[in-house]
Amino acid sequence: VWDIDRGYCTHNFKGHGGLVTAVRFHPQTDNLCLVTASDDGMIRVWDLKRRKCVAVLESHVSIVRSIDFSLDDGGMHMVTAGRDSVINVWNWKRRVLERTIPTFEPIEAVGLLRGAAAASFGSKSGHVVYGGGERGALRLWDMDTGKEVFAQAKELNAKHTFVDVIYLPRAQHLVAATSDQNLLFYSATDRLERARQIVGHNEEVIGIAYVGAAHTHIAVATNTEQLRVYSTDNLDCELAYGHKDIILAVDAHPSGTIIATASKDNTARVWVVNMDAPPRRRITCVATAVGHTKSVGAVALARGTDSLFMVTGSEDRT
């Protein structure tokens, strides 16, 4: 534990039998407690004033990856989750396990929604637990009953998992960090609709094309299954899911409102672009061209403004 103002170590605790995988301070500043978890499944509570471990909580049977506290009751409940596919709800005052919620997937991040976000999912108590992990989709549970109250639909043909999820109360967003190095922002008050994204890694750029009525955006094909459309003004990015394998080529109609992509999944797709539409409706797949038997490595849309056809070339030599 470090004093960040003065830059020195204030505490050095030992006791875990494995790597420490999660740390969290109790929200009550007068409590001065630190909670840690490790890959041995143990959760330890450290009293910073007394400089010792005051409780060891045993229930998890695998790596514990996340810890959070309820704030509306002064932090009287703690939730923990990990790769044993359960979320545990603990009574903080009595240091006992109150409820185990089976998730049927390893969980990398868990937390509690607050205020309007919790109420929007029908919880009377306001105790709504969010979690994300191996499935790459957010799920919500009622902390008091253990029932799942919402499950997000996974992005079309997405292969990513969630490695972390944080809750931004002021913006009412859940931000998920994905295994393919993207940050996905979901609205906690709008049924977890994707609001925006920050792209973290492009790898190899394979093709680009201007899109938008005034060429205000650039469509980019990289070593991923997602089509990426960047704003030339501020480099904000939209991700369009649909292809099952890497996109190998991209082209745009002169009008700037139609994009064609070719992929290693043996198909080409046609997308309609309207960057003024709400998120998730800005780039819409309207057609999938099937018929090739190998990777489609080239695509071209007709140049005439009144011509609406495209040509594809493939590794199958057609």
UniProtKB/TrEMBL annotation:
It comes from the Eukaryota. It comes from Coemansia nantahalensis. This is U3 small nucleolar RNA-associated protein.
